[in-house]
Amino acid sequence: MADQYDIVVIGGGPGGYVAAIRSAQLGMRTALVEREHLGGVCLNWGCIPTKALLRTSEINHLLHALDAYGFAADNPRYDFAKVVKRSRQVASQLAGGVKHLLKKNKVAVIDGHGKLAGPRTVAVEKDGKKVAEVKAPHILLATGARARVLPGIEPDGETIWTYKEAMVPKAMPKSLLVIGSGAIGIEFASFYADMGAKVTVVEVLDRILPVEDEEISAFAHKAFTRRGMTIMTGAKVQSVTKNGGGASVIVEDGKGKVHEISVEKVISAVGIVGNVEGIGLEGTKVKVEKTHVVTDGYGRTGEAGIYAIGDLTGPPWLAHKASHEGVVCVEAIAGKNDVHPIDATNIPGCTYCRPQVASVGLTEAAAKARGHQVRVGRFPFIGNGKAIALGEPEGLVKTVFDAKTGELLGAHMVGAEVTELIQGYAIARTAELTEAELIHTVFPHPTLSEMMHESVLDAYGRVIHM
């Protein structure tokens, strides 16, 4: 006989494990099926270990800029094996924490690959053998996604890397080329550049970080170029030919000129595809578009009793979006009356490069395209005392308001620690605050957050320190 649960979650990433815990808190008997690592790609091979690596590269940058702070050190150097080891230890520690939380909340964790196997049924296999069959009226798919592969540029784990190989290299490459300038590509480009590699970034669109506000993208582009990165936009990788010492990459730039670039490693960071295969969707009414499952605002699919969240579904493909979706989904299943569909424009996006990039809401262009008359405010880091004291005068805070209502339509930031600051604007968006509340809020001095206030003031002709 199959074990009976109220809900079965397939996938233990940031969407799945959070949904399972919330489900258990709501009194539902819950099972979680995970075939590899609790915490998923984010915790084990993405969000968390990359931040550990980026922290190391930030320290390396500071060690080579000690003179600006009155220090001197001869020949600062690093042990790359220890750098990678620390990153893996951080991931391992947090994975253990997820296991503890699931146990604490009495979630049954089943080790194996989960697959729909008929009405209200999930079959679980491990190493090709069936290990369990569980039943539930509600089955939540949280199987995540994997790196998209370009034809002819298939990763081999040696010369052509995905994010996974880029996180655990055997040695520090002297040169590399990154295909794609989204958050993943730019974070790795920033890490390796700060560790001393010669880095080239190739982006097929006309600007890097294409989901960000154009002004922020342009600012980041100039900052990366000043650091010594080569940025090629409107460019396409035609081929990658592996040789004994690395790879020869043929790139056509935006003007039609062809370049041959020799590098030790290539990182392919050109997006993701949903893990829709092998989970039993055949014969169901679950709709899949461009490798991602179609859902409504509560995670419901076209098949009654089947739900989906996270990277398996639509954008933005962010861990915190997956977690929130999981909570919304199970609370709706539990019949809570105060559940609201997630508003994608209220989800902040963060890129942990140097300088950092963060945003929430609509870009200036998107706001205008939707018919808004806008007021735009800006404030540069160079006008902020804390930024100058930190030695981080490079950056910009930009706010976009509806000129008629005062609604904060969007906020966009580039500079030190903006990934920590953006939550202030995210709260303002969620609380539906206008410029009036933000203007009358007292921001502490001296802090970087003062720039958030000044940007709002600038949008209304009241800026003080500029």
Gist?
The protein is of the alpha/beta class.
Walk me through the topology.
Blueprint: E1 3-4, E2 7-10, H1 16-25, E3 30-34, H2 40-45, H3 47-63, H4 80-104, E4 108-111, E5 113-116, E6 121-126, E7 129-135, E8 138-141, E9 145-147, E10 160-161, H5 163-167, E11 175-179, H6 183-194, E12 198-203, H7 214-226, E13 230-233, E14 236-243, E15 246-252, E16 258-263, E17 265-268, E18 272-274, E19 288-289, E20 292-293, E21 306-308, H8 319-333, E22 349-351, E23 356-361, H9 364-369, E24 374-380, H10 385-390, E25 396-402, E26 408-415, H11 418-430, H12 435-439, H13 450-459
Parallel strand pairs: 1-7, 2-3, 2-8, 3-4, 8-21, 10-17, 11-12, 11-17, 12-13
Antiparallel strand pairs: 5-6, 6-7, 9-18, 14-15, 15-16, 19-20, 22-23, 23-26, 24-25, 25-26
Keywords:
alpha/beta, FAD/NAD(P)-binding domain, single chain, 13 helices
Please, could you describe this protein's structure?
By secondary structure, this protein is α/β, with parallel strands linked by helices. It starts with a strand and ends in a 7-residue tail after the last helix. The radius of gyration is 24 Å and the shape is globular. Helix 6 (183-194) links the parallel strand 11 and strand 12. The strands form seven sheets. It has a five-stranded parallel β-sheet with strand order 4-3-2-8-21, with helices on one face. Helix 3 packs antiparallel against helix 4 (80-104). It has three domains: 3-146 and 273-344, 3-Layer(bba) Sandwich (FAD/NAD(P)-binding domain), CATH 3.50.50; 160-269, 3-Layer(bba) Sandwich (FAD/NAD(P)-binding domain), CATH 3.50.50; 355-459, Enolase-like, domain 1 (2-Layer Sandwich). The mean pLDDT is 96. It has helices at 16-25, 40-45, 47-63, 80-104, 163-167, 183-194, 214-226, 319-333, 364-369, 385-390, 418-430, 435-439, 450-459, and strands spanning 3-4, 7-10, 30-34, 108-111, 113-116, 121-126, 129-135, 138-141, 145-147, 160-161, 175-179, 198-203, 230-233, 236-243, 246-252, 258-263, 265-268, 272-274, 288-289, 292-293, 306-308, 349-351, 356-361, 374-380, 396-402, 408-415. The protein is built from 13 helices and 26 strands.
